[in-house]
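hi! just following up on the protien thing from before. the input was this:
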Amino acid sequence: MKRNHEIVSLMKLALPVATAHLAHMSMQIVDTMFVGRVSAEAIGAVSVGNAVFAVFMVMGIGLSLGLDFIISHAFGAGKQDECNRSLIQSIYLCTFVSIPGIGVMYLASGLFEWFGIEPQVAILAKGYLRILSWSLWLVLMFNAFRQYLQAMGVANAVMVIMVLANVLNIAANWVFVFGKLGFPALGVEGSGLATLLSRVFMLLAILAYVARRDKKYSLGLLATSMEFSRTRMMRIVELGLPAMGQVMLEVGVFALATLLAGKLGSTVLAAHQIALHIASLTFMVGMGVSAAAAVRIGSALGHGNQDQAIKTGWTAVVCVALLMGVFAILMFALREPLMGLFTSDPLVIEAGKGLLILAAFFQLFDGTQVVGAGILRGIGETRASMFANLVGHWFVGLPLGIGLCFGLGLGAQGLWIGLSTGLIFVSLALMMVWRKKVRRMRATSFALEPRLSR
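and the predicted 3d structure came back as:
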């Protein structure tokens, strides 16, 4: 009964968090689906632009991942003021990261052709990324407020905001991509504009909700000092830097794989991106379980309940394994209709079907590695995930994928075999680290407070 209660408690938070992640991911998918009716080159352009944007986005989001532990731990200990002050410092952090990030993306958008991307794809990707780059600050700010709410167990409001933002994105894509309601048909750039407007809505909506909730429950956020605190900032950064490294290493390897797939032609690139979108959807479910586990573990440790933290960690592993197993079966069985949702090009569909078979194979490992990172983050451990991703993806998976793709001529399937191998390595490594941490927690007095900078 206790285990069933933990599953229910975990999933009550995980499901809305996962839905919010899915909704965020679906913005890119919606962009791909709309421009997919334009041309294969348009799909390639959106995939390349999103791959580059993702690197800078996850850099900022990764830096703030320490908030999961810091805020949930403070909330579990009944220290609301600590939660508020940490959020204020994260606002500064988002701004510090966004300004140079936007500038670099704007300049880098002119280098696609130099990297080897087809000229027509490169031109379209340049316009798309330059518009999308302006949404970086919006995304990072929204994420900071999302983590603030999520770490206190509030997730439904974020889910609703993300769903509404997706409705807006769909409508705006229809208007700007195809030129409806008197607007000019902007194609790929219109899709970028639609996403930018949707992210403006996201930030305004979550700000309004947080302000309303703060006033209703007298949480004190609106009265919290806006003064910059080096100590609190370093507390976030010390936990966030390894987490950022972990996320960037993982997202970066898939972004590089997308650029490498671009060397294989627009058809292969389109198939790669569609298959990656589909796999990313199931990954977001794992992300939801991971985030929920991190929050519940941090809160349990804030209460001083190590047994509860351990139980939550193992429950999260079991839940994600079952969920990803179901997704693997569905992905394998429905690979052709799934590809058909994104494109009517028979060559793209045929190329993507083979990639989805490989994606189905690595579902279990993809789920357990993201949950492994989450449960370790819940106890304030972020370095292990970074090192596991460095070795697994960059020293094992990527070299193998490049060798199979270009050396043995296996093409995109070779790349994906390499990526799958990297995920297997990371998954097994993080599960071993978690088992070691559990034994140490049970045998000794575990430090509950994150280390502060002097």
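The two ends are 45 Å apart (CA to CA).
The chain has 17 helices and no strands.
cheers
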